Amino acid sequence: MITLTSYLFISLVLFLVGVMVMLARKNIVAILLGIELILNAAALNFVAYSRFVTNNLDGHIFALFIILVAAAEAAVGLAIVIRFFQIKETIHIDEATQLRN
Amino acid sequence: MLEQLLISASFYIPELLSILLMCFLLMAEASHSMENEHGSRDKIYGLGIIGLLVILGACIFNFTKAPTAVFYNAVIIDPFSTLVKIIMVLGTLGSVYLSRSSKDIYTNLKSEFMIMSVGVLIGGMLLASANNMLTLYLGIETLSILSYVMTSLKRDDATSAEAGIKYALYGGLTAGVMLFGMSHIYGQLGTIQFAEMVTKLSALEGQSFVVLMISFLMFFTGIGYKISCFPFHMWSPDVYQGAPIPVTSFFSIVPKMAGIAVLIRVSMIFFGTGSAIAVTWIGLLHVIAAMTMTVGNVTAIGQSSVKRLLAFSSIGHVGVMMLGVVVLNEVGVQAILFYGIVYMFMTLAAFYITSHLSDMYGTDTQDVFKGLIYKHPLMAIVMVGVLFSLAGVPPFSGFVAKFNIFSVIIEKKYYGLAIIAALNSVISLYYYMRLAKTIIFGEADSEEKVPGFTGLNQTIIFVMFVPVLVLGVFWESIMNISGYAKIFIR
């Protein structure tokens, strides 16, 4: 039997994995993947709450919008990464240290 | 249903006009000709500036309308949000005109800045009148995603791309954290409408109360990131330094005003009553406002680049504006709006002068300001006046703005905060006055005048300086206007 708790647990795990990826990985594309994990954790939460607790459509709508925004964010993020790669010829986050006072 | 949508749309004219303007600009960009580059750029700029003026007119027209909730309560149009929109449109107009002359952007670009800034403006408008969590989230993301692009507008510059990456990554993380908080708030309260959430909030207790407390903290992350308050301010110096100057001036006005507006609205709606969560939130805002002011002002002391100095001082100003949020009443909102109007004029004028000098001499360190009074008296007088006003010295409007904020917090008997704010004023006075001293008493390298500052530009900085000066003496009418701009809760 799949209950609300299972969904919440999975989404918490997704969220934590996303944060870990963002902190631990040095590849900018991998960090962008971490952001996607966090956003999807939130979307899963919304849908699960909508199904088990609130019984209205707000959560579903919210999840749809999250998918939409995540796509836009990934597109812009990747575009900037490409620009960075063309200038620096690397996508290692440790190379992004010029702006430090 | 269609009828209701049309009625809603009739209140939503400024936003709809902005969206139309963005589409028109994109189409105009397609007709850009490489042979006659100046001519087609002028055409696009004319279109954009006329469009923004029309939007400004629509906002002013909306200002006196009775407050309404439109689009099934998703969006609220009240004088408060309309006044914030007016400030944002004016800020956009100023930055757009600045970008026209700035060499920092337009060496190899067409009119990307205009299109993006109108887009950010749309996001800011959504945010200023958000009445449920979905609108708030969409507003924040529209604002952020376009901001990432604007940051990396300097195409061949490594620092600009790096600033864009940092902004995008931090921004994505905070947006995700905010969303995760929102999802739990939704789960506990069962709705995404602010007004319905408030009624459910008072009935809660026990376990879900703890969950909500943590969720609200996560929720604050997203807003705090947009207004770059402590401890989410780490990105802003880097972004402000890497971004071109018109973008920096834009960022220190439009997204900040939108963020402050949504912070005020959320605080007023949820925490106007004295529940336990409200006490925690207010306590949090106390600490954050004090820390934001201190961090911004203390770090600004050591900056040699004027752009970075203005960026740090804008963090300090956000801290002062947050003081007005802490009191959670209409007088506080009035004080913040007045501060916002004055702050916009001061920032624009300061960035205009910095941008021009940085274009002329290729750098924006304090050295280029040395002996400016001999090189270009008008520029120097305006800059010194603006610096005095930013520091909050009397006859200038910055003093009235700061005085209002101080008087509302003292009225609420938050003496500790008032003392910290006063100490911060002293610190900010130090670094502003040091720059003013450089302008007046510094020895210029050469006697030659600052070239290329045309009559139109002189008129514009003068026009921006007039409110800074006049509002310091005749502040009543603007105070009345911002007092009229009340928040409508539904």
How would you describe this protein?
The complex is a heterodimer of chains A (101) and B (490). Chain A has one domain (4-95): Orthogonal Bundle (Helix Hairpins), CATH 1.10.287.3510. Chain A contains 3 helices and no strands. The longest helix of chain A has 31 residues, at 58-88. Chain A is mainly alpha-helical and 101 residues long. Chain B has a domain at 294-490. Chain B is 76% helix and 1% strand. Chain B has helices at 2-11, 13-30, 37-63, 79-101, 112-128, 133-151, 158-189, 194-201, 207-226, 235-242, 245-251, 254-271, 276-301, 306-326, 330-361, 372-375, 377-391, 397-411, 415-441, 455-470, 476-484; strands at residues 68-70, 75-77. Chain B has a two-stranded antiparallel ribbon with strand order 1-2. The longest helix of chain B has 32 residues, at 158-189. Chain B is globular and about 70 Å long. The A-B interface holds A 11, 15, 18-19, 22, 28, 31-32, 35, 38-39, 41-43, 45-46, 48-49, 53-54, 56, 58-59, 61-62, 65-66, 69, 72-73, 76-77, 79-81, 83-84, 87-88, 93, 96, 98-101 and B 133-134, 137-138, 141, 145, 148-149, 152, 155-159, 161-166, 168-169, 172-173, 175-177, 179-180, 182-184, 186-187, 190-192, 237-238, 241-242, 308.
